[in-house]
Structures are given as structure tokens and as C-alpha cells.
Amino acid sequence: MALENIIIEHEKGIATIFINRPEKLNALNKATIQELHETLKLAEQNPEIKVIVITGSGEKAFVAGADISEFAHFSDEEGATLARKGQEILFNFIENLKTPVIAAINGFALGGGLELAMACHFRIASENAKMGLPETSLGVIPGYGGTQRLPQLVGKGRAMEMIMTAGMIDAQTAKAYGLVNHVVPQADLFATYNQLADKIMRNSPIAISKAIEAINANFKDGVNGFDVEIRTFGECFATDDFKEGTNAFLEKRKAEFKGQ
Asked: Lowest CB count within 10 Å: 48, 155, 183, 197, which one?
């Protein structure tokens, strides 16, 4: 697949995906959403990739929103289809990937950009980052999961305020809200997500994928998260990684997980 809006780098088990539309502050359009889907799908299938990082090219923006020019004249049915397809092929897709996905927010993360970051398994931000969901200022609401994931992360009241005021918050406020895990100088962003990825890669890939499944289950309607935890906990016992991890602990040595 020829990539026009995405750059991917793969080194030492970490795939870094750069959204590369600098002239549009990396705004998401349909082509970029599709390219992200295909790139993430291939990364998930590559056994050499243990952690995925999504970030934006340059120093100004992670993703400064959706490309409004693509849907400014849509009907209500077209708008609903846009949201449904986007959630299916990218935002929900990321949330349910078995490979950990980190959002490295290196600047503006607005609208669809913040929704993209929230779909990732966790987020880190540079000190210059600004985040918000400004959709109500355009006469619409967030459509890529923002009304659902933001309250899960920051609480209902703060989500209501952010969405209704259409305002931005800075990185430190985002950290205080629980929206991002870490805030670092922009020059340290690359090193920080690599350090976090290294820590993740020391652990069992299978156990991590089961943990993602169990944690996500708590936020799904009609699903008993405790039951999913019990099932996935039990499934771990049938893996070589469990045998290696427990043997390594008892033998006081470092575990060598193979993801099996």
C-alpha cells in the first residue's frame, strides 16, 4: 500500500506511526483514516512489533482535528455514516488492538485528533500540547467516540464542560484531569515513549493483550468485565509465557517471553 499521509518507522520492536499532513496540521481526512487503519492492521500482524506509537509530524500538531472541508455539506445520513465508519475502521479498531498503542501528543490534539489519542491505550504529551473538542463551536458534536471516551477518562462533569465550552486545555491540566499519563518537554517526548515501550516489552505480549481485553470489557455495555477477567486470567495459564514467567521468578532470573 502506497502511503501518502503516513510515515512509519520500525526499530527494536517499536513501530512509530507519524501522521504527516503538515500543511493541514495533520488533520484527519478519509484517506488518512484509511491509511492509519491499514498501517495499524499490518503492524498488529507483524510479530516483531511489540508496541505501536502514534504521533504527528513536526512540532505544532499531533492532529489538529478532522478535515472539515470533506464533510461541510453532508446530509444528516451522510454525517452518521461518516461517524460510524470512522469509529469502526480506526477509533474502535485501535482501542481493541492486542498490541499496546501509545499516543505521543506533540502539539495540538483537537476534535478528531483528541478522539484519536483517546482511542489509544494511554497518552503522553509534550509541554506545548493543547487538547480539546471544539465541535460544538461548529454546530456539531464529537462523532469519533469523544462523548464516550472523554467522560471515561476525565469524569462526566469535566467532559461536559470541555465539550460545551469547546475550549482547549493545556498539557498540565490534561495530566491533572487524567487525560494524559505524562507531560515532558517536547525534546524528551521521543525518549519518554521509547522508555515506556521498553518497559512494556519486558513483559509477556500475551498477558498484555489479555489485560487490554479485560480492561476494555469494563467499558462495554452488556459485558461483565469481571467474567472477562476470569476467563482471560485462566487463558494465560495455558501459555508458554506463563510457564516462562513463573519459572523465571522461582529461578530468580529474567524471563524471556516469546509471546506464545
From this structure: 48
- Which triple of cell numbers denotes residue 214? 479485560
Q: What is the pLDDT of residues 228-243, one digit of tens each?
A: 999 999 999 999 999 9
Helix (H) or strand (E) holding 9: strand 6-11
Q: pTM value?
A: 0.95
Cell 472523554 locates to 150
Cell of 3: 502511503
The b-or-e profile of 113-127 (16+ CB within 10 A means b, else e) is bbbbbbbbbebbbbe
Pull the grid cell for residue 45.
Answer: 500482524
Catalytic residues: 115, 135
Q: Where are the beta strands (DSSP E) in 45-160?
A: 51-56, 61-63, 101-105, 108-110, 122-126, 130-132
Beta bridge partners of 11: 14
- How many other C-beta atoms can be found within 10 angstroms of the C-beta atom of residue 102? 24
H helices of 179-239, in order, are 189-201, 205-217, 225-236
Residue type, 18: F
Give Rg (Cα) of the chain: 19
**N- to C-terminal Cα distance for the chain?**
29
Strands 51-56 and 101-105: parallel
DSSP element (H, E) containing 18: strand 14-19
